[in-house]
Amino acid sequence: MDSAETELIRWFQENPKASLGQVKKLFKTWCNAFVLEPNVLAWTSSGYSYERSLVKRVEPFFDILILKWTPGAKAPYHDHASRGCLQVVLNGKLHEKRLGVSGEPAIQSTLTPETSPSFMNNSLGIHSISNPTNTNVFSIHLYAPCKHQTKFFI
Fold it and tell me: Please, what are the domains in the chain?
């Protein structure tokens, strides 16, 4: 276990209400140390046009997954685990559209650039993510707590 991972676990154990900025920084440090080896990952279909692979589960705190977004891939609007989701794009860009809690029109539409951590949870609403590029894009996601079953809104 590396120091960034140890610090992430410590954050979830000791500081459940600590600053989001601090956990974003810890997760970015972990992602920077991550070595992408797509040929050895156990890819599973999402049922949509992207694939997922579980990289790490630290019970009961979080799951870390890597997602592979093929050109034009899109995740429909969906919810998140109770403590939310941190995301870091490893290469390229992903497009995110957010809807408010009661489903009002898009309140935010952004391109998430490479290495910039973003955060989403249900108190902020739901969101959809897509790959607007013509190349595969990889992103790492931390879902807290672990074993969340995502609900999709099509």
Answer: 46-147 (2.60.120.10)
pLDDT in tens, 62-117: 888 889 998 999 998 888 887 888 888 888 899 998 887 765 666 777 777 777 78
Query: What pLDDT band is residue 46 in, cutting at 50, 70 and 90?
Result: low
- CA diameter of the chain: 43
Give DSSP secondary structure letters for the chain. Answer: --HHHHHHHHHHHH-TTS-HHHHHHHHHHHHHHPPP-GGGS--EE-SSSEEEEEEEEETTTEEEEEEEE-TT-EEEEE---TTEEEEEESSSEEEEEEE-TT-PSPSEEEEEEBT--EEE-GGG-EEEEE--SSS-EEEEEEEESSS----EE-
- Region at 96 (left for phi over 0; alpha for psi -120 to 50; beta for the rest): beta
